[in-house]
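[recover] target loaded
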């Protein structure tokens, strides 16, 4: 039998090997000699397996006694309560309880009482679970040290205990402001170091913006809670190449509106700041705490509703200058402690509207008060159906105010601007909280909160017509007429007609639901006269109060010297309101006929409505023998005045939307007398499927019942191209094809062939386009008949997206004229690439295409860099489309770019052609500053000279008499090579029959680097010699704007004839100021590309010397989407220029210049 190491065979079993004295069992299972002089100490024995000394263990019933020998335990050893036998010593020892428990009187471990807190000078006795004095009777504990001293040794006023010297020392005035004496440290320490957080952030990332898990804490029912953490070193968290600052998110929950004070202290050089924002979806709330005078920030916040909120902690600079605008702040020693303290909501100050208005002044303090809130709480009693204007006006420091509003049902919302309207449906107790989003104030900020009633109630909600007269509407000389407000109660589903009349004076009205404009009507009539009647009709979306605002349009008249207030005026106002409840046609599942209908007196229209499923089609037809009825469909899906979406027509098709339709029948003869019949028919549509070039549609034997006025069909385009629809009727059947858009409006038809003759129409389509058409009978059909439908698609080349810049530009082969089709989304640009191998002229033109064409385009030609504009056009083509013709080009790469004007979107066709031509003969190169002497030898001859600019420059070229036979009269042109057709500047006579051109003076901007042609010719048939002088001036780099420059108060200075570089961010507004020195000084304001190829869509607005009166504005008169505006500024002084983006999202760099020579 084989046994393993350390064992041997004993019969049928393997047993451990025993070693003789002086030996032990080695790792190989053999007995080896013990090391010499191996002796084990008292209580230990040699381990025969390892050769090491180990603790000696005794058998059960014995313990290790003195001398290291095992001795028997005393018989029947018993231990008292709270003790237990120690088997090693044989003695009874005190029971040790786990943490959080103590030993009670029975000797049992029980849990300590929850939240056991002991008062000053006492501590918890873990044996009894009770608070006991720290010091014995006759002594007291020294604060901050733990030492017990005789009561006679207590420190006096102005003294503190010092551990280092074990005595009281004088500290009055000893510690600097912001520090406190620490007995344990025996030094003055910063107040920050005395604060300890209740909870510190964990080790993981907690920025919700990057998908991390936020920290959470529970806001106590009373008192304060302190959170702490580190503002870590900024890193590139999302891999976009820009470092991201560390933002720590702490989430907590409130169960009701809650007032809290949040105080942040920076540690280790941190300028601590924080944001507080709502986390719940659909609820927007955000506030910032940013200190202006210290390393911390303190502010009060009224969290307006129950829900989840987040405190976002970081260094304040990370809120103010995030990359790439500024560096991200953070590091291992950057810390913060934020105290969140729940405060009682103060009693609101009552605003008593005794005379229709009330106001109160308050102050937002920089430092938190010892009691009370930093915010202002106010309350006002509001009447039903009265328009109130709510105001909050801050004075002084950089501030972003916010007015929180509450009624009996809770939070209503917040408003940032003064003059916020409110229209209660019932009497309301309104609570207003004067708050702010952020503040950089260094001193207390005063504010005024106000509530004022602004309206007159028009009584009556059931009468068909209500009239209210207001005798006095007046203004002193030079003053504006005050807006007048009238409130009436409108009902959902009724049509309301509002008419405002004045004895004299032009008026306009706005109908609004308290805050949202739903209707606007200007006075109609002779624009040169004072029109005194304004009329609006609208469709209320809910039952409740509506406001009529009456505006005096003749407050300002424009004279030769600008705007002037008109003289003193006094008008009488009359407001008429009519109501009409539309007749309900009911559910239409089969044709419905309404007979003997009449026009409602005084309205000119009778209204109808019906329930309709979204997407369903209905045919409406009105007929009469004694009037000329016409149908209209009005839009009820938007909050607006009645807007006709189809008609007026005797017959129309309607596709139902999400809201119930509103139809109207009027008498086109305007008499409104007689009766009419209205027929509403549901339409069944047959889907023919998808058509493509390889898969035409053939539908043979379609039926035409004798009783049917027509059949409706749809088809879907499977590719871009021209769809041809042909209908071949049976003999005796005369058909008409009517084409509709997707909303059911008629957009085309085909007929005239007669009975049995085929009818057809063609239209451009894009993939996925749905074509709706009707095959209608002409005349009366005696019996059922049939017809065949054939649809073919001639496919065209279509743009390939994404082609929004040079990298994705579609390549066009213009060896022969090229044609491509495209579709522009709102704000989109389509880029096409052209590669040429010879000198010639490039032309491009856009045309309408598809069932929904773009309607209005823009067109550019760019050089190979994608930034140098060679040509641009807006409306040179037919019907608002674009064309650029004969752009001179050399061999190389060019880009043709198509865009929609403004918000235009839809389909287009692009035609691009190239004509190879012979370039002009270049006589030589111009060296600036070196005169050229030459001559015109043949009548009509032109001399072409090449000028190369290596950087942005201003060019001045001038001709003089020269040589033995001076020419006497010249002409001078400047072209941008290779263009030889469209000159940049031109001059005939500078004053002595010779010529002078100045590029900067004539264009308003320096010339970009590249090749140019200076061309000299003789006037008429003049010939002879001349001298040409050309000078080049390189302007200094453009200065940059200084932010902030968001209004007239901080506008940047803009010098004449000097380009200034600026940049718009989304929603930005850049303001500049220019100073004129002469009367009627002509100035051209222009934005241009900044050289990086960015096409920023700018808008320039020029204001008068008051910074508010608009003198002129321009959107796209400059190159591409840039702006250009020329004005004569009437009197010497300062004028203001504002540059904004066309849309809120417009952003990018641009150059601005005010040119005046």
């Amino acid at each position: 039998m084989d046994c393993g190491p350390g064992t041997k065979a004993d019969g049928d079993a393997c047993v451990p090997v025993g070693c003789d004295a002086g030996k032990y069992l080695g790792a190989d299972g053999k007995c080896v000699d013990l090391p010499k002089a191996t002796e084990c100490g008292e209580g230990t024995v040699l381990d025969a397996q390892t050769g090491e000394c180990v603790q000696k263990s005794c058998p059960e019933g014995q313990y290790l006694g003195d001398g290291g020998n095992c001795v028997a335990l005393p018989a029947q050893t018993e231990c008292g309560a709270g003790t237990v036998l120690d088997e090693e010593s044989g003695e009874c020892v005190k029971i040790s309880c786990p943490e959080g428990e103590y030993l009670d009187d029975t000797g049992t471990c029980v849990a300590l009482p929850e939240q056991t807190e002991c008062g000053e000078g006492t501590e918890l006795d873990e044996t009894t679970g009770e608070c006991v004095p720290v010091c014995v009777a006759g002594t007291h504990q020294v604060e901050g040290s733990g030492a017990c001293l005789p009561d006679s040794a207590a420190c006096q006023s102005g003294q503190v205990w010092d551990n280092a010297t074990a005595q009281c020392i004088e500290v009055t005035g000893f510690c600097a402001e912001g520090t406190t004496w620490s007995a344990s440290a025996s030094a003055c320490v910063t107040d920050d170091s005395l604060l300890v957080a209740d909870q510190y952030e964990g080790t993981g990332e907690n920025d919700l913006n990057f998908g991390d898990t936020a920290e959470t804490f529970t806001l106590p029912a009373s008192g304060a809670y302190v959170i702490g953490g580190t503002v870590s070193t900024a890193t590139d968290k999302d891999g976009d190449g820009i470092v991201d600052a560390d933002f720590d998110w702490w989430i907590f929950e409130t169960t009701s509106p809650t007032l809290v004070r949040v105080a942040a202290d920076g540690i280790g050089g941190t300028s601590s700041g924080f944001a507080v924002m709502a986390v719940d979806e659909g609820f927007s709330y955000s506030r910032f705490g940013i200190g202006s005078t210290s390393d911390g920030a303190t502010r009060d916040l009224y969290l307006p509703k129950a829900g989840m909120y987040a405190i976002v902690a970081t260094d304040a600079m990370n809120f103010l200058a995030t990359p790439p605008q500024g560096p991200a702040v953070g590091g291992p020693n950057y810390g913060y402690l934020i105290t969140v303290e729940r405060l009682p909501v103060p009693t609101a100050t009552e605003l008593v509207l005794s005379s229709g208005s009330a106001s109160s002044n308050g102050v937002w303090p920089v430092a938190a008060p010892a009691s009370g809130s930093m915010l202002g709480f106010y309350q006002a009693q509001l009447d039903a159906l009265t328009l109130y204007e709510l105001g909050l006006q801050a004075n002084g420091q950089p501030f972003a105010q916010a007015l929180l509003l509450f009624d009996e049902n809770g939070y209503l919302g917040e408003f940032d601007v003064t003059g916020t309207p409110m229209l209660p449906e019932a009497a309301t107790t309104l609570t207003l909280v004067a708050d702010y989003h952020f503040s950089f104030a260094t001193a207390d900020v005063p504010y005024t909160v106000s509530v004022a009633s602004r309206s007159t109630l028009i009584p009556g909600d059931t009468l068909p017509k209500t009239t209210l007269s207001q005798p006095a509407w007046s203004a002193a000389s030079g003053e504006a007429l005050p807006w007048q407000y009238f409130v009436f109660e409108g009902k959902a589903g009724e049509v309301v007609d509002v008419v405002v009349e004045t004895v004299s004076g032009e008026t306009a009205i706005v109908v609004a639901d308290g805050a949202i404009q739903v209707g606007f009507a200007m006075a109609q009539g002779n624009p040169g006269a004072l029109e005194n009647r304004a009329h609006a009709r609208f469709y209320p979306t809910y039952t409740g109060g509506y406001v009529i605002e009456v505006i005096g349009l003749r407050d300002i008249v424009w004279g030769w010297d600008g705007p002037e207030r008109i003289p003193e005026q006094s008008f009488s106002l009359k407001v008429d309101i009519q109501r009409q409840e539309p007749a309900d046609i009911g559910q239409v599942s089969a044709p419905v006929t309404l007979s003997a209908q009449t026009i409602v007196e005084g309205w000119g229209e009778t209204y109808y409505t019906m329930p309709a499923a979204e997407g369903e089609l209905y045919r409406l037809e009105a007929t009469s023998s004694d009037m000329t009825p016409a149908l209209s469909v009005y839009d009820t899906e938007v909050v607006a005045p009645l807007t006709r979406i189809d008609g007026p027509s005797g017959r129309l098709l309607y596709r139902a939307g999400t809201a119930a339709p509103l139809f109207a029948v009027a008498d086109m003869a305007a008499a409104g007398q007689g009766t009419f019949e209205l027929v509403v028919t549901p339409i069944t549509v047959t889907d023919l499927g998808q058509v493509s070039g390889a898969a035409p549609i053939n539908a043979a034997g379609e039926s035409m019942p004798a009783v049917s006025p027509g059949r409706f069909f749809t088809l879907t385009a499977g590719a871009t191209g021209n769809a041809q629809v042909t209908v071949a009727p049976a003999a005796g059947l005369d058909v008409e094809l009517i084409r509709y858009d997707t909303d059911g409006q008629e957009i085309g038809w085909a007929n005239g062939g007669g009975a049995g003759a085929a009818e057809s129409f063609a239209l451009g389509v894009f993939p996925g386009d749905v074509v709706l058409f009707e095959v209608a009978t002409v005349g009366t059909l005696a019996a059922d008949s049939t017809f065949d439908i054939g649809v073919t698609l001639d496919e065209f080349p279509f743009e390939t997206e994404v082609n929004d810049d040079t990298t994705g530009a579609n390549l066009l082969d213009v060896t022969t004229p090229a044609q491509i089709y495209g579709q522009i989304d709102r704000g989109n640009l389509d880029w096409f690439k052209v590669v040429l191998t010879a000198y010639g002229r490039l032309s491009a033109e856009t045309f309408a295409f598809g069932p929904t064409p773009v309607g209005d385009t823009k067109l550019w030609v760019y050089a190979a860099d994608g930034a140098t504009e060679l040509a641009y056009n807006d409306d040179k083509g037919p019907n608002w489309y674009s064309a650029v013709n004969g752009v001179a080009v050399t061999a190389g790469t060019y880009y043709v770019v198509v865009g929609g004007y403004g918000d235009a979107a839809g389909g287009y066709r692009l035609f691009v052609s190239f004509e190879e031509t012979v370039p002009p003969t270049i006589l030589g190169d111009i060296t600036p500053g070196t005169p050229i002497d030459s001559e015109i030898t043949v009548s009509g001859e032109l001399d072409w000279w090449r000028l190369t600019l290596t950087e942005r420059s201003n060019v001045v070229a001038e001709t003089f008499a020269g040589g033995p036979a001076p020419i006497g009269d010249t002409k001078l042109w400047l072209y941008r090579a290779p263009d030889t057709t469209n000159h940049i500047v031109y001059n005939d006579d500078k004053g002595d029959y010779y010529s002078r051109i100045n590029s900067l003076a004539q264009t308003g901007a320096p010339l970009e680097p590249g090749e140019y042609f200076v061309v000299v010719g003789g006037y008429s048939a003049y010939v002879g010699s001349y001298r040409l002088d050309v000078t080049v001036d390189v302007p200094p780099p453009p200065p940059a704007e200084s932010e902030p420059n968001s209004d007239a108060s901080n506008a940047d200075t803009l010098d004449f004839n000097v380009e200034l570089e600026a940049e718009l961010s989304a929603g930005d507004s850049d303001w500049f100021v220019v100073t004129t020195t002469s009367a009627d000084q002509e100035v051209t304001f222009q934005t241009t590309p900044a050289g990086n190829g960015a096409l920023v869509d700018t808008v320039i607005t020029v204001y008068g010397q008051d910074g508010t009166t608009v003198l002129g504005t321009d959107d796209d008169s400059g190159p591409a989407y840039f702006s250009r505006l020329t004005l004569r500024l009437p009197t010497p002084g300062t004028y203001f220029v504002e540059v904004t983006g066309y849309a809120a999202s417009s952003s990018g760099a641009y150059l601005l210049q005010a040119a005046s020579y």
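[recover] notes: Confidence is low (pLDDT under 50) at residues 520-530, 555-566.
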